[in-house]
Amino acid sequence: MREKTARKYTPFIIFILMFLYLIAGLIKVQVVEQAQHKELLVDLLGTSNYSRGLRGNIYSSDGVKLAWSEQIPTISLKNYGDKDNAELRKYLTTEQIVSIRNTGQAELSWEQAFLLKSIGYEISTVEKRRSYGFLYHIIGSVNVDGDGVSGMEGIYNDLLKGKVSISYGVGSPGGGYKQGIIENVGENGMDLQATINYKLQKFSYDLLTELATPSVIIVSNVQTGDILTMASYPAPEIDMNSLDLISWEKILNDQLTPLLNRAISNTYPPGSAFKVITAFAQLLYGNPQTVKCNGIYTYRDSKGRVTGKYKDWLLSGHGIVDLKKALRVSCNVYFYNAALDVGAENIAKVAKAFYLGQKTGINLPGEASGTLPSPEWKVENIGENWYPGDTILYGIGQGFFTITPLQMITLYNTIANRGIFVKPKLLINEEIVKKEILLDIPDAYWDLVIQGLEEVTTVQGSGTNAGTAAASFKGFPITVAGKTGTAQVGSGQPHAWFVGFAPSRQPMYSVVVLVEHGESGGLFAAPIARKIFDYMYQNGFFKDSQSNQKSGTSKNSN
């Protein structure tokens, strides 16, 4: 009987026990382990979003944006169907529709973004970098990830790029957004101010565009090394941050190589602009004497045999010439004699002391070092001995010596500073780096060379006596110390140079102009330099300088 009663209540007892177990389990989950399970649920439903602040702007020294970033609203569609096609055509252009079909994305106006978001489409913002094509050689560009890959964009990428932030939120079990827990906005990158003066840069590049031949203009602050202008023509015609494939291929196949920064990456024979080095070499190691220039120099070997004849640029000759006049009229015959007087080794020694044959150190990628030849260099690099003819040509900046336009202007800055080399720079707050040249040059020698350079732009008269840039600088109210150069290059027309600084005795700014195959420094490069100096004078660059009136006229071609 008892067994029968026990069997009768067994299921009930089991049910009660199971019910109590369930209640205990619920209490354990809901009460005892509530915090633990809540944390797990939050982890499962939580979402993390990464965002980056905008890239910093690059400004010119006169306050113009040279590179900047914009937030562009963008629609993204993974699956583009007929319903989307019909609906989106009410709001988007044909080009935007094509972009969505091809890439799944399209850039929008803010008005389009507002309307499409209001009817349920997902809209995000994408950072777009902007700049000017004619500034590409200085500013550079960014890649598809928004990182700088060339120019200042590449050099200062770590400073310019925005900082990454994380935002954290919790979604509902159905997948909808519920609540933001931590919301961060990425910090924008640092803004930078370049030494470039936008208006002067644009004026200079427009001059070269009118010239329509590969060429360079650089303007610098003699005392600080600030580069106010670095115009290399041609440059890309469009913003290099947003290129399509067709435009990219067109630029790559352009025979004028618009991606090449000729100011720092291309080297050229300096021609007569190098004669200042030969002049210092003769003053330090030779015996400066007057020579008679009849338009040709005849070289005789130790046995008196004529082994070479070297022409002056003025075939009628310059008459009696001393060192100062030789600089003024750019007399080749004088510097042929001077080079043989001191020898190639001493010319190379002086050039090296002025830091030629090495990079200036400007903070831009792709700078070339040029070539500083010597007898040892020729044996090692060409496998031939050095001959007297090599020395003769070396004295006038021809032969194996090559230089970049930036090295050229830095050389003349060093002369303006009487032996102090100032590293060129492109960032306003970058440290000014100065170092002395590796030679002890007396004040009298500096005076003599600078006087010769002043006469290049001031002494008018006949072709045998006038400064080679005097016609171009006639009437300019500030004395410019400068030098023309006409550099022979194989069978093509010579390259044309002018380089100079002003005011000559209290130097503030320097200008270099290079025109590839420009024929004559005096006729083609110097007039462009005069236009640059005129613009600077008229726009207050020289407001603290004293004017020096000049008069007279001439026309020269070296």
Task: Spell out the blueprint of helices and strands.
Blueprint: H1 2-32, H2 34-45, E1 46-52, E2 58-59, E3 65-76, H3 82-88, H4 94-103, E4 105-107, H5 110-118, E5 123-131, H6 136-139, H7 151-155, H8 157-160, E6 164-171, E7 177-182, E8 192-193, H9 198-211, E9 215-221, E10 227-233, H10 245-252, H11 275-285, E11 291-293, E12 296-300, E13 306-311, E14 319-321, H12 323-329, H13 332-342, H14 344-353, H15 375-381, H16 388-394, H17 405-416, E15 420-422, E16 434-436, H18 443-458, E17 481-489, E18 492-502, E19 509-515, H19 521-538
Parallel strand pairs: 2-8
Antiparallel strand pairs: 1-6, 2-3, 3-4, 3-5, 6-7, 9-10, 9-19, 11-14, 12-13, 15-16, 17-18, 18-19
The CATH architecture designation of the largest domain is 3-Layer(aba) Sandwich
- Share of residues in strands: 15-25%
Structural class: alpha+beta
Q: Rg, please?
A: 36 Å
What count of structural domains? 2
Q: How much helix is in the residues?
A: 25-40%
CATH class of the largest domain: Alpha Beta
Q: Name the assembly state.
A: single chain
Question: How many beta-strand runs?
Answer: 19
Inertia-based shape: elongated
Low-confidence stretches: 546-557
Distance between the termini: 136 Å
CATH superfamily of the largest domain: DD-peptidase/beta-lactamase superfamily
Biggest sheet descriptor? 5 strands, mixed
